[in-house]
């Protein structure tokens, strides 16, 4: 009979795969439409992805358009990488000895990536706000640049958990040496 924890972890594993595929598709769609907008048709800037209209920025300030869209793509790519790291935990974890150096390293990397996503999102949000105030109106961009503070908080919490994991490894190693 499976324990409740194992069932929850199986469900979370499936949810992580769904999130990973979704974030990768969103990132890929943004990359594709961005490349199309630069290479063949400026009309693609009217609807980069699900109503994201940066055509005014494209028409008036192409360097800012390239910078802003590249940064948004980078943030979504980092989010896909974050979910990938979580999937790596599912692949590497041994439930008999969950405190391992590999898992602690992955948890640490997750905290760093979450912090990078958070601070990057906040910086790009302020950059977009500056563009919106000084250069061109950017409708619907806020939906792509939300959650910066939440990712910073998440990164800080996961960093603490990573330190607990490292301490757990130390205790587990001490217990193995004393037996």
Automatic annotation (TrEMBL):
Pfam families linked to this entry: DUF2975 (PF11188)
Protein name: DUF2975 family protein
Family matches, as InterPro entries: DUF2975
Sequence intervals crossing the membrane: 12-45, 65-90, 110-128, 143-165
Keywords: Membrane, Transmembrane, Transmembrane helix
Species per Swiss-Prot/TrEMBL record: Pedobacter duraquae
